[in-house]
Design brief:
By secondary structure, the protein is an alpha/beta fold. It has one domain. The chain is built from three helices and four strands; from the N terminus they run βαββαβα. Strands 1-4-2-3 form a four-stranded parallel beta sheet. The radius of gyration is 13 Å and the shape is globular. The two termini are 16 Å apart.
């Protein structure tokens, strides 16, 4: 049996830059949202609850978003071609 990555029911949106994420937060109404951020980017963002973005903890946070009825998950994934970026891309789409 082939292993499938966990894909949350909560919509997951990926951002490549902090500026793009900040712009999205300014343009969108307040929602119950989970922010998955690299530790260096956590300061200065007050919209939503922020959690550290790490390989080990990404799946538990995605599950938590579903269990706690978040309306969306926003992830700042600046590193291209990393295992974590790949994991989040698979979770965000229907692959």
């Amino acid at each position: 049996m082939r292993y499938r990555h966990y894909a949350p029911k909560t919509p997951l949106k990926l951002f490549k830059t902090l500026e793009a994420l900040q712009l999205y937060l300014q343009e969108q109404p307040s929602l119950k949202r989970m922010l998955l951020l690299p530790e260096r980017a956590e300061q200065g963002l007050s919209e939503g609850e922020s959690f550290p973005l790490r390989q080990r903890t990404s799946t538990p946070f995605l599950r938590q978003a579903d269990l706690q009825d978040y309306q969306e998950i926003l992830a700042l994934c600046q590193e291209r071609e990393s295992a974590l970026s790949n994991r989040l891309l698979k979770a965000a789409s229907l692959i």
